[in-house]
Every structure is written in structure tokens, then in C-alpha cells.
Amino acid sequence: MRVVTCVVAFHNLWLVALAAVVCIGGGWVALELFRRADARQGMQRSGWLFLAAIAAGSSVWCTHFIAILAYDVQAPITFDPLLTMASLLIVIAGSLLSFTMAMEKRTLRVGFAGCVLGLSIAAMHYAGMAAYHVDGIVEWDATYIFASLIVSAAFGAGALIALRRGYQYGGLAMFVLAVVGLHFTGMTAVSVTPLVTGAPLADATVLATMAVAVAGVALIVVATGVVSYMIDNDATERNVETLRQMALNDPLTGLPNRTGFSDFLNNEIDRASDEGKQIAVIGVDLDKFKEINDLRGHDAGDQALKIIAGRLANMLRDGEFVARIGGDEFAAVKRFTDQRDLLDFVTRVERELFTSMRIDDFEVTPGASIGVSVYPSDGDTAARLVGNADLAMYRAKGDVTRAVCFYEADMDELARARRNLSLDLRRAIDRNQLELHYQVQTSVAAKQMIGHEVLLRWKHHEFGYVPPAEFIPLAEETGLILTIGEWVLREACAESAEWKEGGKIAVNLSAIQLAHADMPRLVHQTLLDTGLPASRLELEITESSIIQDKVRSLHALRQIRALGVTIAIDDFGTGYSSLETLRSFPFDRIKLDRSFMTELEHSPQARAIVRAVLALGKSLDISVLAEGVETLQQLHLLESEGCNEAQGYFLGRPKPRKEHGTALPIAAVA
Ligand code: C2E
Ligand code: MG
Ligand code: MG
């Protein structure tokens, strides 16, 4: 009751209201700044803490000062300027300390920080009171002083805890209660008995003007906080926008990138499924980009991309979208209902890509392969549509007569299956799906095993054994043959090094291996590592391996041969079969292609060729091995023609080592 009486009876209520406005407004801003500090780290946090402390301190101080001016003491008053200033600094420093402590999340600590805030407000209040000189007898009531300290500390703690827990308004209310509660309880503790000194009383209008001026200053300080808050918000939004732009756009061309494209396409699909519309996905791969890059440099390549991107972007109409999704890959999306609109769009895209452009001093037409897939007929997910547009685009790439292909399931699914298979092949070694089978090679006259050909087998986890005729070309296209070939060589050498019966092992080499891998070093290293004598290893190559890069291949073959490894020419009689090949390199063995065996019994021409090859071998001193011997008759015929070596199902099928047993397979022939 005494507090209420104190407020109502001894205060100018207008000024009390003004003090309340300053307190609530300032408090609100200070607590917002505090929350911003909480959301930041390092230097930024310190900056926001400082601003929050300035806002809290100055608004509390102004509230106090206005309220003091509102106190109608009925006696002459003066202020000690130094102490008045000091009281402002006390509350700012106290707020800074408190807010900094409250950055740590533990409730106890936050509560303690809140007490510091409350007590610094109290310290400010009593320092301010000490600066306030009244001509009269001033008496203090210790109980009320003590109560005011409890009030400010408790509400201060409550304010920060509430704020920390996310109760913004609760926090603000407690903060205001801490300030107001302290002030009026503190004022109740004072009683002044005016002394008649003859000094004039302060003019109430002057006091009120001063109070309004102080409030103005408080509002300016608080407004500064608000403005910094707004600037920061704006900068943050801008940063977020810049980051978003960077994440979704390609910096070189300014077009959306792959992520931007996926976002857009996914939205379009959602929309189209609601509206029952169709969407086309158009995949574009530039034809000449690599050429421009290689011949004219990367700057020219960049320029070409920018020009193309600019052209594509300029021709867009409503419902059309284009993005750069890779080095020289673009993709477009078109929403349509009438097929003619789609065709028109594709024609426009094609025209832009086939219009020549000038870069520096040369003229070039980029050209492109374009694939189109349509939602919902060719797929109902973004991934499926893009994949199918790609497949169609690959078909366009392989077709010299067409730049644009639309996805066609029966044609493109084959390509997809091959791509999937090649992905599986990539993991076949790790998944332990590759195995080696050995097929015996026999001397016809002595009926003895002379060696084994190593044949690779791939047991696919879904399709079972995939024929080498299918996966070896795939491995060659993708370059995987280098890893696989190395694995075959190592496995075969390691396994056969253990065989008691000895004999040669013949490993097939692909043209790619001969052209790209450092085969002589690899063979040498493998022999050293596995301990297989060089004389037991034979490498089979086909003529096509030598045709591609003759000088390099022959050089590599000579080095391998110098190690003591023998070289056989495989599938002889098919393909090129030029005598030049036999002349250019001293092969150790000719493997007569198995296609001759099937005709041997009936075709005099086949027999004549076999005879001629055997004669050639004899005169060049190269042994000839006949492949694909399937019957006893074929074997007898070969024998009568003077062929000394053979291999085929009749003599033994390719099988894993453990199924070979120890008996020599030729025993079956006899
Ligand atoms: P190739 O080197 O001419 O191997 C002989 C092929 O003839 C093998 O087929 C073998 O199973 C088959 N064959 C053997 N005897 C007979 C027979 O009496 N009748 C018939 N019809 N066929 C017979 P495969 O294992 O399917 O291999 C096919 C081709 O795949 C091989 O032809 C070879 O060029 C390639 N290949 C196999 N393994 C490897 C390897 O490890 N590396 C490389 N680069 N190519 C390999
Ligand atoms: Mg072979
Ligand atoms: Mg062969």
C-alpha cells in the first residue's frame, strides 16, 4: 500500500506513463538484440551483446531518471553530474556482464545472470539517488531497500530465464517489473522532510521538459538498436538469397544448374499431375564443345557456353525452362498440351544450337545431340524422365543423320540394360563375381596336354553367367578392361603357378590393354609376384590389337616377348588376317579360328584355307593350333592335314580348376 501511495501521491502520473513507455519500448528492443546475439557467434555476438547492453542500460537509466523527475518532492533539488553519469555506466556495464553470462544455456547460470542484471539496475538506482540532492532531511527505510533488491534480482532472473525458454513477452514483462518494481519500492524507502532553506523549488515545467528530453534520447538510442537489427535482417536475407542463387545457378552462364533444374522439374511434375498436363524433358549434349576447348583453349570454351546459354535463355517463352546441368550438357523443360508446341520448342532449341557463332576470330557451329522424353508417357519421376531423355540423346549422338531423338522404349531400353550391366560390371571384382575357367590345349600327335587357355567368367547376381562376348566389349568401351584384364592375369598366373603338371597358360589380352596399359611392366611384375616362370605364360592377342596403333603395340609385344613370354595370334582367319601382320611380328603360335572347324568336314574351301595356314605356319616356323574342335572326325581331319595342336569342346570344355581333376583329358580321346 505504501508503494502504491508513493506512486499515486508523490508522482507526476504523465511522466510515470512516459517512463513506462521508455521502459517497455527499450526493454523490448534490448531483449530482441539479446536474442540476436544468442543466434550469432564470435565477433558478431560480442557486437550484438554490446548493443543489447547499451539499449537495456540506457532505457533503464532513462526510465529511472524520468521517474525521479516525476517524483514530487516539494523541496529544492540538484543533481551531482558525475554520480549521475556513473549510474548510467553502472547499469550498462552490469547489463553487458549479465547478457554475456546468459549466453550459456544452463538455467542456473541464466538465473544468476538475471540476478546480476537486476542488481545492476538496483546499483544504478541507488547511485542515481545518491546523485539526487534534496534540501531536506532524507530518511531511508532499510526493509524497503532490501525488498527492492530482492524484487529486482528475482524479476531480473525471471526475465532472462523466460527469454531463454522462448517466452518473449513473459521475459519482457519480468524485465519491466524488475525496473518498475525496484524503482517504486526503492522510492518508498525514502522519505524526505523538506527544510525551509529559502532556495526556490524546481519549476515543474522545467522538470517535465527535461524528462521528455531524456525520453527522447532514450528513444534515439533504442531506435539505433532497432535500425542495426533491421540492417542485419536485410543483410542476412540478402546473404541467404545470394547463397540460394549460388546453390541453384551456374556461375558461368547464369542459367540454373543441375540442382535448380531438379527443383524446377519436380515442381512441374507435381503441377502437371494436378492439372493433367504433359511435360517434355529435353537433354542437350554439345557436339563440338570438346573440340573448341581443346583447339582454342578454355576461354573460348567458356565463351561458347555463354553464347549458347544466352541464346537458349532468350528464346524461352512461357512454360519453358533451360538449365546447364554439366560441362557441355544443357537440359530444358517444356510444359505443353499440344504436341505441335513441343515440336516447335524442340525446333527452336535445335536452331539455336546449329546457328554458327563467332568467338574471337573464328566461326564455329556448336551442334548438339538432343534427346526428348515426355511426362507421363515416358516416365513419372524426374530421374526416370532425365534418364530416358539421356538415352534418347545418346541414340541421337550415335546417329549421324539426326540431331534429335525422342525416347522410344524398345530401342532405348536395350541401351539402358547395357548401361546397367556396365555399372554392375564395375563392381564385379569387389563382389567376387569374376572367376576363371581353363580350357585344355592338346598336342594332336602325342595326345598330351600342352597348356590351358584362361577364359573369364562373370556370374551376375541376377542374371547368372553373362557370356564374355557380351561383357568383354562392354568392359572395353568403358575402359574397365584394364582393371579386369590385370585381375585375370594376376589370378591366372598365381593359380597356375601351383599346378604340379605344369603346362602353359594362355591369357587373352584386349587391344585396349595393349594400347593403354604398360603391359610389359605389368607382365614382368606379375611374373615376379606370382613366381610363374615366364616360359609358362602365353598371351593371346587378336589382329585388331595391332592394327590400331601398330608401332606402339609391336614395341610392347617385343618387350613382353623379351621376358620369355610367348605370343599367340587369336582367331586367325577372321577379320583382317593380313599376311603383313605375320610378317611384322614373330608370333609363337597361330590360333586358327573356330569358324573353320564347323565347315571343315563339308567345305573344300575351308579345308584349303586350313591347309594353307598350316603350310604358312610350317614355313614361318610358327605352330598352328586349331580352335573349336567339337568332334573326333574334326580331330582326325586335322591330324591328316598335319595340324599338331588343338583345343575344343571335344578335348575339354572350359571349367574351373577344381573340376579339372588330375587325369590328363586326352585319355578320353584315345
Ligand atoms: P577366344 O579367345 O577365341 O576363346 C575361345 C572361345 O571359344 C571361348 O569362348 C571358348 O569357350 C569357346 N570354345 C572353346 N572350344 C569350343 C568349341 O569346341 N566349340 C565352340 N563353339 N566354342 C568353343 P568364351 O569363353 O565365350 O570367350 C569368348 C571370347 O571372349 C574369347 O574368345 C576371348 O576373345 C574373350 N575373352 C574371354 N576371356 C577373356 C579375358 O580374360 N580377357 C579378354 N580380353 N578376352 C577374353
Ligand atoms: Mg583366346
Ligand atoms: Mg579364339
Topology (elements, then pairings):
Layout: H1 2-10, H2 13-38, H3 42-70, E1 77-79, H4 81-101, H5 107-130, E2 132-134, E3 136-140, H6 142-164, H7 168-188, E4 190-194, H8 204-248, H9 258-275, E5 278-286, H10 289-296, H11 298-314, E6 320-324, E7 329-336, H12 339-353, E8 357-359, E9 362-364, E10 368-375, H13 382-398, E11 404-406, H14 409-426, E12 434-443, E13 448-460, E14 464-466, H15 468-478, H16 481-496, E15 504-508, H17 511-516, H18 519-530, E16 537-541, H19 543-548, H20 550-562, E17 566-572, H21 579-584, E18 589-592, H22 595-600, H23 604-620, E19 623-626, H24 632-641, E20 645-646
Parallel strand pairs: 10-11, 13-15, 15-16, 16-17, 17-18, 18-19, 19-20
Antiparallel strand pairs: 1-2, 3-4, 5-7, 5-10, 6-7, 8-9, 12-13, 12-20, 13-14
Helix pairs in contact: 1-7, 2-3, 2-7, 2-8, 3-4, 3-5, 3-8, 4-5, 5-6, 5-7, 6-7, 10-11, 13-14, 14-15, 16-18, 18-20
Bound molecules: ligand C2E and magnesium ion (MG) (2 copies).
